[in-house]
Amino acid sequence: MQGRSKLPAMGVDRTPQPHYIESMSKNTESSIIDQEISRLEEQVEILLHTVERLTKENRSLRAQQESLSTERATLIERHDLVRNRVEAIVTRLRSLETGV
Known about the structure:
Radius of gyration: 42 Å
Helix content: over 70%
Distance between the termini: 144 Å
Shape: rod-shaped
Structural class: mainly alpha
Largest sheet: none
Number of strands: 0
Oligomer: single chain
């Protein structure tokens, strides 16, 4: 019986299978890593979509701000013209009151 392998006695029906156990733990580790990578990929995709949406929104808001600034400048200019006309009318009325 010297030619027998030095495996531990496991009973008649069972023989140790360390390679099976190792491959299971490696597969489990690999599976966990794959799941983590997938989760990170999803998060990156979400972040990319968020950045894209915010970039579009930012462009839109900047265009809106530019438009509103232009409109405000136009309104201020028109307000000044109207105020000058009213002041001119008031000045003429006063001159008519005192001159007549």
